Amino acid sequence: MVFYHIVGITPEAPTLKLAFHGREPKKRVVITDGDLKEVHQAISGGGGKIDFAMFGI
Predict the structure, then answer these.
(1) Per-domain residue ranges for the chain?
(2) pLDDT band for position 16 (cuts 50, 70, 90)
């Protein structure tokens, strides 16, 4: 099982320092607007506003 924090969004992660108790995270993932647009184009038929998206395995 994988857990993640979104700094400023996840209640346990108001800041990066609090989320990781002052330690460095093992891995950082940065998702850009370009990444979101690319996925949106790949999975949608005609575009439009995304109200909800869930990705998983």
Answers:
(1) 1-46
(2) confident
